[in-house]
Specification:
about 130 residues; four-stranded antiparallel beta sheet
Length: about 130
């Protein structure tokens, strides 16, 4: 059973920065995707970023709305994935979730491609 614990959310003014962390524990996988999603009340969970890990190699992808502002990275030794968020905008306000899913999918930007989810962390950006 994989367990994910997010941290780092909070409140910030527009233009500010936050870094979210997602610490993973449980059965190790050699190939998997770790994604970040966000959700606001009344809307579906939205893809933000993914890091796709296969043995010692990895690749990343981002939603168009966050490209150039957000960076996903990992610390292999700590089994932790980070989401560095810069130049935050009020529309980035949401609950942010990290998730783990199979590497072998062409739909890593969909919530249905992930099997394990963290509890979520609130990010609030004020104008």
């Amino acid at each position: 059973q994989v367990q994910l614990v997010e941290s780092g959310g909070g409140s910030v003014q527009a233009g500010g920065s936050l870094t979210l962390s997602c610490a993973a524990s449980g059965p190790p996988f050699t190939s998997y995707n770790m994604g970040w999603f966000r959700q606001v009340p009344g809307k579906e969970r939205e893809f933000v970023a993914v890091i796709r890990i296969s043995w010692s190699t990895y690749s990343t992808d981002y939603a168009n709305s966050v490209k150039g502002r957000f960076t996903i990275s990992r610390d292999t030794a700590q089994n932790t994935v980070y989401l560095q968020m810069n130049n935050l905008k009020p529309e980035d306000t949401a609950v942010y979730y990290c998730a783990v899913g199979t590497y072998y999918t062409g739909t890593y930007d969909r919530a249905t491609a992930y099997d394990y989810w963290g509890q979520g962390t609130q990010v609030t950006v004020s104008s």
